Amino acid sequence: MTDDRAVQIALQLKKLNVSQAGIVDLLSSYPYDVIERQLKFLPYRKAKRKEAFIIDAIRNNYSPPKEFYYAPHETTASPNNPALDQNSEPDFGQADANAQGYGTPSTPGPTESYQWLESGGLDGDLELPDSSTEDGPQ
Q1: pLDDT of 45-91, one tens digit each?
Q2: What domain count does the chain have?
Q3: Would you say residue 27 lies in a domain?
Q4: 20 in Cβ contact with 4 (< 8 Å)
Q5: 8 A C-beta contact, residue 97 and residue 103
């Protein structure tokens, strides 16, 4: 199993154009976990020369790039629980506020809203207290 793992790591390093001597040196000097970890981080790094960068990253045990943690992860939907946005179409129409339970069915217009005040109140006999009585402010 360890030989298969070493072969897989060597193939990945070879794809990055790491020299044969570099591959042998890395595999003999560093744990496979460290090498695989840096290979996993490499796509998230902005390396111009990937073959030189991967060697340096393994030798100096570089920390993960921030893009590794903040990169969008692809989620897979199970057949029993499909993704929410799968085959969905956006609804661009405006929803009726009354149908959703918001608002009032008939709001008074500007002329209707103050008619009861002009007519003297709700029952027609709006009386203001006399300011000279004891109950009012002095």
Answers
A1: 888 899 999 999 999 999 888 877 776 655 555 555 555 555 555 55
A2: 1
A3: yes
A4: no
A5: yes
